[in-house]
Amino acid sequence: MKLIGNSNEIVTFRPKRKTFHNLCEDIVLVAEIEMKDQEKYELSYGNQLIPIATKLASQEQHKIVICTPPIYGNIDFQIILITMNYHISIGAFIQFYINQKTIYEEFRKFPKIGIDYFGDYSKFEMGGLEIVNQDCLNRFRTASEFIAFLDHDNLFIPKNGNILPVQFTEIYASYRFNTVGM
Hints:
It is a single-pass membrane protein. Belongs to the glycosyltransferase 92 family. It holds the Pfam family Glyco_transf_92. This is Glycosyltransferase family 92 protein. By secondary structure, the chain is α/β, with parallel strands linked by helices. The chain is built from 4 helices and 10 strands; from the N terminus they run E-E-E-E-E-E-E-H-E-H-E-H-E-H. The protein has helices at 77-89, 101-107, 124-140, 163-173; strands at residues 2-4, 10-12, 16-17, 29-30, 41-45, 48-52, 62-71, 92-98, 113-117, 144-149. It has a 4-stranded antiparallel β-sheet with strand order 2-1-5-6, with no helix packed on it. A 4-stranded parallel β-sheet has the order 9-8-7-10, sandwiched between helices. A two-stranded antiparallel sheet has the order 3-4. Helix 1 (77-89) crosses helix 4. The chain is elongated.
């Protein structure tokens, strides 16, 4: 197999089989190569060129990165907004993966978060959590001191737990909930 990059440099490699059985229709092949121009790659297989999507690792340093599961649209936004603001207030960077364009546009308004739009990817729900966790790990492992994989309603709590009541009061006061009688 050959990998062709932006500079038309061709790298030949031999993938190693990682699937240890013959029960599955698909198998996993793994190969490691040094990537020089990390923008666009195509895999040459026979007389076909298959584009390979690549993302650069983050260059911005973070103390804590929170990786979250994919958001498909059926979520409680109050929980996500409170969780997001709480993590930002303790200095964490939070990475979201969203497949609804309108939700993506709303999240773009928030500073200090990372968002990716994955659109209509039919196989995403089959392995969505594994895909986004691997993407988040690959993107931020060299640019952060600590990475946490949390659900949308989980909190990363620092050692000084006394700050939580104060932070929740501030976060609650910053929102106008549409609840009667509050």
